[in-house]
Amino acid sequence: MNTITPTADPETGFTVEAVKFYRDLQERIIVAFEELDGGGKFERNDWTREPGHRLKGGGYMRVMRGKVFEKVGVNVSHVWGTASEQGIAQMPGAKESGGKFAACGISLVAHMANPFVPTVHMNIRSMATSKTWLGGGADLTPTFPFDEDTADFHASLKQACDGYRADAYKEYKEWCDKYFYLPHRKEPRGVGGIFFDDLDSGNQAADFVFQRSVGEAFLDIYPRIVRRRKDMPFTEADRDAQLVKRGRYVEFNLVYDRGTKFGFVTDANPEAYLMSMPPVAKWP
Amino acid sequence: MNTITPTADPETGFTVEAVKFYRDLQERIIVAFEELDGGGKFERNDWTREPGHRLKGGGYMRVMRGKVFEKVGVNVSHVWGTASEQGIAQMPGAKESGGKFAACGISLVAHMANPFVPTVHMNIRSMATSKTWLGGGADLTPTFPFDEDTADFHASLKQACDGYRADAYKEYKEWCDKYFYLPHRKEPRGVGGIFFDDLDSGNQAADFVFQRSVGEAFLDIYPRIVRRRKDMPFTEADRDAQLVKRGRYVEFNLVYDRGTKFGFVTDANPEAYLMSMPPVAKWP
């Protein structure tokens, strides 16, 4: 197993602390999900870029193909170095840092065996150029939405937001609705959640506390929703509807998703940033 | 059924003639594929943009879900009007035409039931702004390549090219290899074919004859390959390999394909430009 050793660059110093939390959260999610699955085990694969590559770093990939979790990826990634021209154009403050940047995050997508269990996505990340900022969010994509699940998911994220700033939930919920939208289909990806980016309030400690609370909120609420739905009986037609909904998920991730695009431009491991792809999907 | 009536604009005049050929070719492909399928029938759906839409036009969608052809789309589209800012930036000569453009084409993707029958794509198109040009190509994507199929497919396209210009096949084959490549996977989409774009040699009649011969070459060779492979016995593992290969096809079309991107920026019918999506695909 390779170990990722960040350089002593000041901008990576910022992300080193963040990665510690992401890896701890990753482990706790793994424990919770394996217990919930009651059979599946996460595969553990660490990868690093080849020596001599323009960029340094790699990722800690964790994937489970279980009974309840048909396919779930919980990845921590950490990349630093000098960005490509395209990367510099896309990242705030990268021009001023001479292209130097560091980025890390934890990213999770769960595709569930039972069509009544919603697909879920959670991501929190830290970025550094000549600026530093945080981003993240979580959103729920049911094939068959249950009001109870939607309400509980949002309530949990709202609580995380309320501890940070009075208007945060309202703003980040709206941002999520706007971001997780498929313009070509004229339909939302799911029932929303929260989304935030470019977060740098001036109080980095408070921003980190908020970001962590989003991770904790996710870990609190999603297993409760899974438990509620995982044993509901379903028909072949229900399953088909789920696979079509997953096709939309593929469209969003490949056409619009920033994290996936970031994977493409940083020449990352496709098995890592495409872990969000569903195990099977349909376009009938 | 709606009928698409082009305006009398000189730039659409160019495409009106092209559409006649594309529709004729479409009908002949349909007859050949239905006969080959021995059971399936094409559904016929015509669509037009809403009155008052920035753009005019629409498409003639033809889809068959058969026994041999698991899902095949053969679409003719025709769009004209004033391009969006993004469209103007992307189309040669659009700045000079004040954004006015017309575009039409026939586009075909076949996903086959038997994993030993290669997936195929064929497209020919005509574009007009202040300039006019043709584009097109055909490429083969087998899950399990057979040298005989690859050789025959290329030989047929080479013959079409040789009738046009001595170096055409070599150039368009290389263009195809370069275009139908997944950089993030570091792998080609399939075994290639030909690809050409921005074709305006100064002899429009000769360019059209060449383009037509590409369509005819496709109609000659692909049914022969299908006939050769469609009844070969296969295992569940073969089928799984096919579904994974189709996942790569999805990645190419959503991330790189110009035709799909053109559909996105012209606010076309997603059911038409996403007809290329496979009926089912896997990312295990």
What does this structure look like?
The structure is a homodimer of 284-residue chains. The first copy, chain A, starts with 9 loop residues before the first helix and ends with a strand. In chain A, strand 1 and strand 2 (55-64) form a beta hairpin. Chain A has a single domain, classed as oxygen-dependent coproporphyrinogen oxidase (3-Layer(aba) Sandwich), CATH 3.40.1500.10. Chain A has 284 residues and is an alpha+beta fold. In chain A, the strands form two sheets. Chain A has a seven-stranded antiparallel β-sheet. A two-stranded antiparallel ribbon of chain A has the order 7-8. The model of chain A is unreliable at 1-8 (pLDDT under 50). Helices cover 42% and strands 28% of the residues of chain A. At the A-B interface, helix 6 and strand 10 of A face helix 6 and strand 10 of B. Strand 10 of chain A pairs antiparallel with strand 10 (280-282) of chain B.
Helix-strand blueprint:
Two copies of one chain form a homodimer.
Chain A: H1 10-37, E1 42-48, E2 55-64, E3 69-82, H2 85-90, E4 100-112, E5 119-128, E6 132-141, H3 147-162, H4 168-179, E7 181-182, E8 187-188, E9 192-199, H5 204-229, H6 236-255, H7 258-265, H8 270-273, E10 280-282
Antiparallel strand pairs in A: 1-2, 2-3, 3-4, 4-5, 5-6, 6-9, 7-8
Helix pairs in contact in A: 1-5, 3-5
